[in-house]
Design goal:
40% strand, GMP Synthetase, Chain A, domain 3, 157 residues, SH3 type barrels, globular, 2 domains, 3-stranded mixed β-sheet, alpha+beta, 4 helices
Length: 157
C-alpha cells in the first residue's frame, strides 16, 4: 500500500465525520517532503482558512499517532481551487459539462494532452468533446495520468 493510500485510510473517517471530503492526498519533494491534503466540504460550500486549520489539527494528531511517514515533512491543507484536479470517476460525472485538460499515461493518436468539454463517464470510458476540433473522443479512465478543470478565465485567453 502506498504512503498516500495509508494516509487516506487513517484520516478519511474522521474528516468525513466532520463534513469534509478528501479530494487528493499527495506526498511530494525529495529533500524536505510536503504532504498536501486537498479538501472540500461535502455540502460543496466554500473552504475557509478556518476549515484548513481544523483539518490540519485533525490530520496532525492522527498522523502523529499512526506515523505513516517516517521522516520530517510539512503539512499543507488546501482547497481544490478553480483548476480542481479530477481524481476519481465520480469527479468526471460531477463535472460533466465543464472544460477540462487531460493528460494520458501513453499517447493516443499521437497526443498525450487533450483539452475540451467533459461529456461525462460511461463505465470505464471518459468522454470528451475536443476543442477546437469539436470531435468526440473517449479514453479509458485507467489511461488518464492527470486531469483538471479549466477555469473560465483561461478560456478567454
Amino acid at each position: 500500500m502506498s504512503v498516500e493510500n495509508r494516509i487516506l485510510e487513517i484520516i478519511t473517517p474522521s474528516l468525513e465525520e466532520k463534513g469534509y471530503h478528501l479530494v487528493r492526498v499527495q506526498l511530494q519533494g525529495s529533500k524536505r517532503k510536503t504532504l498536501q491534503i486537498m479538501i472540500e466540504k461535502r455540502d460543496e460550500s466554500h473552504i475557509t482558512v478556518d476549515d484548513c486549520a481544523s483539518v490540519s489539527r485533525i490530520a496532525s494528531v492522527l498522523l502523529d499517532v499512526n506515523d505513516p511517514i517516517h521522516e520530517s515533512y510539512d503539512l499543507e491543507v488546501t482547497s481544490p481551487g478553480l483548476d480542481r484536479p479530477l481524481v476519481i470517476k465520480e469527479d468526471y460525472k460531477r463535472f460533466a459539462g465543464s472544460m477540462v485538460k487531460i493528460e494520458l499515461k501513453i499517447p493516443y493518436e499521437g497526443r498525450q494532452r487533450f483539452h475540451g468539454l467533459l461529456l461525462g463517464v460511461e463505465g470505464n470510458l471518459v468522454k470528451l468533446e475536443l476543442s477546437p476540433e469539436k470531435e468526440i473522443t473517449e479514453f479509458a479512465f485507467s489511461d488518464i495520468k492527470k486531469a483538471k478543470l479549466v477555469p473560465d478565465y483561461e478560456m478567454s485567453q
